[in-house]
Amino acid sequence: MIVVMKAGAPKAEIDAVCALIRSEGLEAFVSEGQERTIIGVVGIDIDRVAHVGTMPGVEQAIRVTSPHKLASLEHQRDRTRITIGGKTGIPIGAGAPLVVMAGPCSVESPEMLIETATLVKREGAHVLRGGAYKPRTSPYAFQGLGEDGLKLLATARDATGLPIVSEMTDASQMELFEQYVDIIQIGSRNMHNFTLLRAAGQGRTPVLLKRGFGATIDEWLMAAEYVLSAGNANVILCERGIRTFEHATRNTLDLSAVPVLREMTHLPVVVDPSHGTGKRSLVGAMSLGAAAVGADGLIIEVHPDPPHARSDGDQSLSFPEFGALMDELRRLEYLKRGSERAPRMATVPASVDDMRERIDDIDETLLGLVDERAQLALAISDAKGSDGNGHDPRREHALLDRARAMAGGALDGEELEQVMSAVLRASRQMQRRHTAAKRDDVRAPA
């Protein structure tokens, strides 16, 4: 049942409704909107409080037909936005920009983790992913570093400022995870581990709930309901592929789940193209597809040396591959923003020959300016040291915004954006090439 309070209902009336609901052994979940307050009623035999609709301040009481009551749009029409990493952290959901979570499948060593964390941050990732406890199909496979892995993740967070997400595999780990991580991941194999779901629901750390590889969307939402009904409203759904008869990929990534969930729930939805395909070559295309269908975020596996990764190397991106993907994701995200600015008008010479000569002069100037820009970006990267780079995502956003805003000249905003995107992409490739060369020089034996 959903109890809709009248606009401007005072707190005393809201508290009285909640007190009545709880006096009957039911649970009351209060959701405060901009104009009205909605109270979700959960429990057995809700008809015991059917008369709540007659109480002061109540506009109406509505029976919820959806089995996943708290996750449904009937309970909450406004999209949920969750802040990762505290009040000043990263927002996800409800129209916030795409959030990219990236890092190794497993935490293997301090050096590997810091190197990866530094790289993914430099390329624009918002959250560091990494497995400390690894539930594996084989008991002989690498099971993760456990608590030591969580401590290494916390160290990487201190070094880079990136919030961290890691998988919890047992309810007894709850206190440990609340101490070290910013997002608790519930893996596909544990989607139906109701004890674990309830434990995650008793905290306030955001929960990334992966879809079970054999679960329907309704079953997935019911698993989210366990976390929500235990009191934790910070649930993020993660589509990671389902098991079908197809063997060309590790799983079948169900991108249609994203728009389907948009019609069913207010919770944020992210996509895992790494587990969804199991193939490094497919991760980029499915990431772009996920962003295009409206995913709130992506979680991607990245490793400095994928062929020698201790787990899931076949689906982990190398550093250059991740950088190239981030370039494409930036381009996709930039298409959603724009503003207005007057175009600059050219002075046209009198003759065709003079026009061509002027174009040659401009081309020569452009080539020099592009190379000068690249040199400055490289100098910034060198000045920042090993953990820095010469490009700033926010400044790049602003540049492409300006390019799009210059519609009205010979080139429209989209064409100008394509030109500047190519310049930025080449600049980032150049910086990666120089960084890789320096890394190879350091690793080379004397």
Entry keywords:
446 residues; 4-stranded antiparallel beta sheet; 13% strand; Alpha-Beta Plaits; 3 domains; globular; TIM Barrel; 8-stranded parallel barrel; alpha/beta; Chorismate Mutase Domain, subunit A; 14 strands
Explain how this protein is built.
With 446 residues, the chain is α/β, with parallel strands linked by helices. It folds into three domains: 2-62, 2-Layer Sandwich (Alpha-Beta Plaits); 82-331, TIM Barrel (Alpha-Beta Barrel), CATH 3.20.20; 352-443, Chorismate mutase (Chorismate Mutase Domain, subunit A). The protein contains 13 helices and 14 strands. It has helices at 11-23, 110-122, 147-160, 174-180, 194-201, 217-229, 257-262, 273-277, 280-292, 319-334, 352-384, 393-405, 413-443; strands spanning 2-5, 27-32, 37-42, 58-62, 82-84, 90-92, 99-103, 127-129, 164-167, 183-186, 207-210, 235-239, 269-271, 297-301. The strands form three sheets. The chain has an eight-stranded parallel beta barrel with strand order 7-8-9-10-11-12-13-14, surrounded by six helices. The chain has a four-stranded antiparallel sheet with strand order 2-3-1-4, with helices on one face. Strand 9, helix 4 (174-180) and strand 10 (183-186) form a beta-alpha-beta unit. Helix 2 (110-122) packs parallel to helix 3, helix 5 packs across helix 6 (217-229) and helix 9 runs parallel beside helix 10 (319-334). It is globular, with a radius of gyration of 26 Å. 40% of the residues are buried.
